[in-house]
Amino acid sequence: MNNNRRRIYYRPSKMQGIITGIISGFFVILGITVVIPNAGLFGIVWTLVAVFIGVSNLRMVLGKKYAGPEVYIEDDMSGAESAEARFEKLQRLYDSRMITQEEFEAKRAEILRDI
């Protein structure tokens, strides 16, 4: 059984950033014209959150290092034993008669599949 951990990173596309930026711009305008006058402190918080979302998306769209969409998958191999170490361990178990020939062959096939 392969117990490797995977870490996945996703960055949205530029088009997604543009659309979200337009929507957040609408919410900023709505916040300034309607929500702040009617709701006071809540309106200020609403508008600041909308500004933050808009600026974040603007940075994503205009960023020079980003071409989007990107997905990164990193395998965490730090805790995994090498196939060679697993074969040696398996051989020691077989030599000490802790496992049968059938168990040895089954586990050997599993190690080979994981390579």
Summed up, what is this model?
The chain has 4 helices and 2 strands; from the N terminus they run βααβαα. It has helices at 14-39, 41-62, 83-95, 101-114; strands spanning 5-11, 70-76.
Count of the domains: 2
State the helical fraction: 55-70%
Summarize the biggest pleated sheet.
Answer: 2 strands, antiparallel
Number of helices: 4
Whole-number mean pLDDT:
80
For this entry, give a set of tags.
single chain; 115 residues; 2 domains; two-stranded antiparallel ribbon; 4 helices; 2 strands; 65% helix; rod-shaped
Task: Describe this entry's structure for a reader.
The chain is an alpha+beta fold and 115 residues long. It folds into two domains: 5-76; 83-114. It has four helices and two strands. Helix 1 (14-39) runs antiparallel to helix 2 and helix 3 (83-95) packs antiparallel against helix 4. The longest helix has 26 residues, at 14-39.
Secondary-structure topology with pairs:
Blueprint: E1 5-11, H1 14-39, H2 41-62, E2 70-76, H3 83-95, H4 101-114
Helix pairs in contact: 1-2, 3-4
